[in-house]
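User: Sequence for PhoU domain-containing protein below. Tokens please.
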Amino acid sequence: MLVFVFVGIVMTIIMQSSSAAIVITLSALTAQALSFEQAAALVIGQNVGTTVKAFIASIGGAVPAKRTAMAHILFNLFCGMIAFLCLPLMRLLIFWLLNLFQSQDLAIVLTVFNTLIYVVGVLVILPLLPRFTQLLERLVPGRSDTLTQFLDPSVATILQVALEAVRRTLIEVTKVIAAVGAELFMTKQMSTKMMGKLEEASHALAEVRTFLSQTNNKSLAATNQDYERQVSLIHVIDHLARLLRALEESSSASFCKLNKEINNLVARTENVFKEFDRLSNEGFIELVEQAEKNAHEMAEMRRKNRKVIIETTVLSQTDIDDAIQIVHTIHWIDRIAYHLWRTMRHLKQSQEGIMEEEEITSVI
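Assistant: Structure tokens for PhoU domain-containing protein:
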């Protein structure tokens, strides 16, 4: 019987279609050129043989594509093994069912057998799905750098897929930067670990720029929406880079001498950093609006307080060094609030493929 399994595998590889191979087997069974057991063994081999096509298609593909192909191969091999070992029992079950429905059509018998192979396979695999997933992850490991795991060169020529890969990567980078920002605003000091996170984010941004440049060189925007998404994503990269640089300059900032009104804005900006994980939820729209409100209020606060602080210094009510330090800190917080808002705004637009009216005008 193993010979027929092997023949079934070869048939599918040559014909590049398990369906066509099964049709031939059905015809041979109906013509009584094959016994049921021989035809069943051929079908098992044909189902296993179809995995060769999946394997070939996954060569050079992304990790998800390779894992999908591996899952297909393992599942079909598993189903084939169960079907081969349980062939006598499955034969009895099928003929019992057909007798129950008063049918003896051999074509139906083989069709039911082919269906039963996958039904049994699914029933066995479902309870073991977590372990099966872990096995796939071990057999096909992902990229070591989780921030840039979506940037697979094989998708760079497919514009829509490439843009989505860039968008997802930028979301992950923003989450890292937002986590650092939230911790910085809470602790009021930059730790070595936080600097390491910012360095990782900086390297990831560099990879995103390289990947997006390759995409731009290999393909043109097919639609206006693709064009607008590209523009928004480049805006995100720019604002993230500026936000990252601002956070790295935290050592020159001083929170202790800020007034209550500014500290309230600092607390609200910290909250936006903390809430960034809501990106995929409906609440993200409200979060973007909150970030925008904070940025506008912080900009107004910067303009108003700068003048007041300098005038107070002239009246000798404030030390000059302290005054300059406070002004610098307010400017620093203003930069962070602004770039955080613009990053979130453009991330939202990159998902929707919509630019703001003033941005479209500036491009034109």
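The CA atoms of residues 308 and 323 lie 10 Å apart.
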